[in-house]
């Protein structure tokens, strides 16, 4: 059976300066990282969602999806406390599921 060591076998041939430069370059790339939010920010989201559901207001959600920040505008139809997700109806009456932990920002649409 052939066991491939992957990139480990090639790092021995690289100069330490090259390895260091590659690591710095990889750390410098900021794509794919989900922003970290604190508990206070999630409380603000909760307040905005509750008011929007009560007054049937349109919200714009910025959420993390596949390494990018995506946007969705719609009305919150249902909040699932157990699964920690929102069901949002957009302008075309399409249902979208948003995980609460993926939400980066919420704004009112005027």
Task: Walk me through what this model shows.
It is a single chain. This protein is α+β, with helices and mostly antiparallel strands. The chain is 31% helix and 33% strand. The protein has a five-stranded antiparallel β-sheet. Strand 1 and strand 2 (68-80) form a beta hairpin. It is elongated and about 65 Å long. The model has no long low-confidence stretch (mean pLDDT 86).
Give the overall shape, derived from the CA principal axes.
elongated
Write down how many β-strands occur, each being a DSSP E stretch of 2 or more residues.
Answer: 5
Q: DSSP helix count?
A: 3
Please state the structural category: alpha+beta
Poorly predicted ranges (pLDDT <50, ≥5 residues)?
none
**Biggest beta sheet summary:** 5 strands, antiparallel
Spell the H/E element sequence: HHHEEEEE
InterPro entries: YolD
Protein name: YolD-like family protein
